[in-house]
Every structure is written in structure tokens, then in C-alpha cells.
Specification:
Layout: E1 3-9, H1 17-28, E2 33-37, H2 59-69, E3 73-77, H3 87-96, E4 109-115, H4 123-135, E5 139-148, H5 151-154, H6 164-180
Helix pairs in contact: 1-6
């Protein structure tokens, strides 16, 4: 049985290096792991309890929850915006944390990786993302980390899927996620 990992990308930009990292995760997924990149984060309205109503859920939020409900684990790709997590990624976590204690993230393993222009590769944003995932009830893999600095120069002419370090690290993190899922146990 295959472990399904839902990839959420914190950058909506078409040429995003984090989006390209997610594509690399799809390409380099180890046997028995399927990575599915969710493409609709830009369609999910900001979380508001007044619109989180069964039977009248906004379409973007419903699609996100459906995709997350089919996932065994999560891999979030976070750039760093002003030293922290991008709003679109935090919003996805907020939607997936509800209903409280029974949201789609609850108890499922998650890891956070990413790339950013700065010298630390978005470490602050990724740490904040892990914190938010943990508060939302996810089983965050604390040791599954991969931050790539200097994205604009490193990936100027090289797609992340062709980067040797990416090809080594992403499959290892995906294997950790697979091993942490009840499906794999």
C-alpha cells in the first residue's frame, strides 16, 4: 500500500523555487510514496469561523480539506516572507486544524522544507510552520529538516530536481514521513 503525502507550497508565484522543490519531491519520491501537490491554496479564503459552516463551505476550503483528508502525511514547502511563514501556508494550516481536535492534520505526520534567497534558506519561516503544525495537532517530524539558502543564485539555471543535494535529501524526508504513518506501520 502506498503512502500518500500532500504537498502544500507557501508561494503562489508561477516560477517559485519552492514550487519547483515540490515538483522535485514528486519526481524523487521513494517507492511506496506518492506525493500530490495541492494547487488551490490561492483559492482558499482567509479562515473565518463564520464561513466554516458544514454544507456551505467555500469551494477552495472544501477542496483543501478533501485533499488533506485523503493524505497520510504532509510535506510543506515554505519560503520566508519578512522573516516568517507566508500567509497562504498559515491559512491552509488554520483551515486544516478545524474542527478543533479532529481536523485533517490531527495526528498525521508532517515535515517542513524549503528554500529562500537569504543565507539561512528560510529557517525562521520553517520553524514557525512547524510550530503552527504542532499546535494544529499534526505529528511534526522535528528532525526532518531541509533548508536551502541562496535560491535565486543556486536555482538560476538549475531546476531543484536536478540538484544532487535535493535528490538525496527529499527522498530521505519522504521516507521518514512514510515510516511515521500508520499505513506504513
Amino acid at each position: 500500500m502506498s503512502v500518500r503525502v500532500l504537498a502544500l507550497v507557501g508561494s503562489l508565484r508561477a516560477g517559485s523555487h519552492n514550487r519547483q522543490l515540490a515538483e522535485a519531491a514528486v519526481k524523487h519520491a521513494p517507492a511506496g510514496v506518492e506525493v500530490v501537490v495541492f494547487d488551490g491554496l490561492g483559492d482558499v479564503p482567509f479562515y473565518n469561523e463564520d464561513i466554516d459552516v458544514e454544507g456551505a463551505l467555500p469551494a477552495g476550503a472544501a477542496a483543501l480539506r478533501e485533499a488533506a483528508g485523503q493524505a497520510d502525511a504532509f510535506l510543506l514547502f515554505s519560503p520566508e516572507y519578512n522573516g516568517t511563514i507566508p500567509a497562504v501556508l498559515k491559512n491552509a494550516i488554520d483551515w486544516l486544524s478545524r474542527p478543533y481536535g479532529a481536523g485533517a492534520l490531527s495526528g498525521k505526520p508532517a515535515a517542513v522544507v524549503g528554500t529562500a534567497f537569504g543565507q539561512f534558506g528560510g529557517v525562521w519561516a520553517q520553524d514557525e510552520t512547524r510550530k503552527s503544525l504542532g499546535v494544529a495537532g499534526s505529528a511534526v517530524l522535528a528532525d526532518a529538516k531541509f533548508s536551502i539558502p541562496g535560491s535565486l543564485t543556486r536555482f538560476a539555471e538549475l531546476h531543484p530536481q536536478d540538484d544532487a543535494e535535493v535528490a538525496e535529501q527529499l527522498p530521505a524526508i519522504l521516507a521518514q514521513l512514510a515510516a511515521a504513518t500508520p499505513v506504513a506501520a
